[in-house]
């Protein structure tokens, strides 16, 4: 599918809203004492705890440069916690946004790909992989599968971030604590094989938290988890499914086989404290 700035704005708003809702839920649950969510232009700045992957500026720049005073206040908020400002900016953002951030000292860390697929048809399920919605009884199974699968990278593509097992476990617990996500666990040959989640925001299904245990990779587990989420999202009224991957990874190849197209990338920029 082709993506213009209107599509990018739709996707960025959905992902930014999911991030905002999630961090606000963590604040309400007192899971992260110093966490904050602050509106910034069309997007948000979120902070959970030191070194969290959820610390980011997202959804900004498509409508032009960020207001200098607001951006300065956000930078001080992160730097007061000795945390870098991490800004994830769509490559369809206004060129002036990149000039602004470069002038303020942000440096490029790398890129991530944003892929999407219209939900205009069902995705074929896999008969050899069983995918079930997570219940209270299987929540811990789901957690262990996603933590272990994410902790063992498949060494494909160009990955910007490498997190410890401890950091990964903490962020998965943060996702589990946030309401509104649909979660799934996959079984292959009678064994737990992987897990994934999604959240539908407006008419966009944001696919998150997908991981396969190393022993079950290259066996169609991700395809099965994708198909189940796509079909459930369509049933919930979503019109577009979105997923983010590192460039050139097996994960990107998997989703493209199920009809996803690369619609734009995000530049990951950081300003050190």
Summarize the structure.
With 273 residues, the protein is α+β, with helices and mostly antiparallel strands.
Task: Give your account of this protein's structure.
This protein is α+β, with helices and mostly antiparallel strands. It has two domains: 5-113 and 266-271, no CATH class; 129-263, Aminopeptidase, CATH 3.40.630. It contains seven helices and eleven strands. It has helices at 5-28, 68-79, 95-103, 139-151, 165-177, 221-235, 250-257, and strands at residues 36-40, 43-47, 56-58, 85-90, 107-118, 129-133, 182-188, 191-201, 204-212, 240-245, 261-271. Strands 1-2-3-4-11-5-10-9-8-7-6 form an eleven-stranded mixed β-sheet, with helices on both faces. A hairpin with an 8-residue loop joins strand 2 and strand 3. Helix 4 packs antiparallel against helix 5. The model has no long low-confidence stretch (mean pLDDT 95).
What is the secondary structure topology, with strand pairs?
Blueprint lengths: L4 H24 L7 E5 L2 E5 L8 E3 L9 H12 L5 E6 L4 H9 L3 E12 L10 E5 L5 H13 L13 H13 L4 E7 L2 E11 L2 E9 L8 H15 L4 E6 L4 H8 L3 E11 L2
Parallel strand pairs: 3-4, 9-10
Antiparallel strand pairs: 1-2, 2-3, 4-11, 5-10, 5-11, 6-7, 7-8, 8-9
């Amino acid at each position: 599918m082709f993506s213009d700035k209107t599509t990018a704005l739709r996707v960025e708003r959905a992902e930014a809203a999911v991030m905002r809702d999630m961090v606000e839920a963590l604040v309400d649950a007192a899971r992260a004492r110093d966490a904050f969510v602050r509106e910034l232009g069309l997007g948000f700045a979120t902070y959970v705890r030191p070194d969290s992957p959820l610390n980011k500026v997202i959804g900004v720049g498509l409508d032009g440069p960020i207001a200098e005073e607001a951006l300065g206040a956000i930078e001080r908020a992160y730097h007061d916690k000795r945390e870098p400002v991490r800004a994830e900016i769509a490559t369809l953002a206004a060129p002036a946004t990149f000039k602004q951030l470069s002038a303020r000292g942000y440096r490029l860390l790398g890129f991530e790909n944003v892929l999407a697929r219209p939900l205009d048809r069902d995705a074929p399920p896999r008969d050899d992989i069983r995918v079930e919605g997570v219940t209270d009884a299987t929540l811990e199974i789901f957690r262990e599968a996603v933590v272990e699968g994410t902790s063992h990278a498949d060494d494909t593509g160009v990955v910007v971030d490498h997190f410890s097992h401890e950091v990964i476990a903490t962020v998965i617990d943060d996702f589990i604590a946030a309401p509104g996500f649909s979660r799934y666990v996959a079984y292959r040959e009678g064994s737990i094989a992987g897990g994934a989640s999604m959240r539908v925001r407006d008419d966009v299904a944001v696919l998150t938290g997908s991981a396969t245990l190393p022993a079950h990779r290259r066996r169609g587990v991700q395809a099965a988890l994708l198909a189940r989420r796509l079909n459930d999202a369509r049933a919930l009224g979503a019109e577009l499914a979105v997923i983010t991957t590192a460039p050139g990874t097996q994960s990107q190849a998997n989703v493209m086989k199920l009809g996803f197209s690369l619609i734009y990338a995000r530049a990951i920029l950081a300003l050190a404290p």
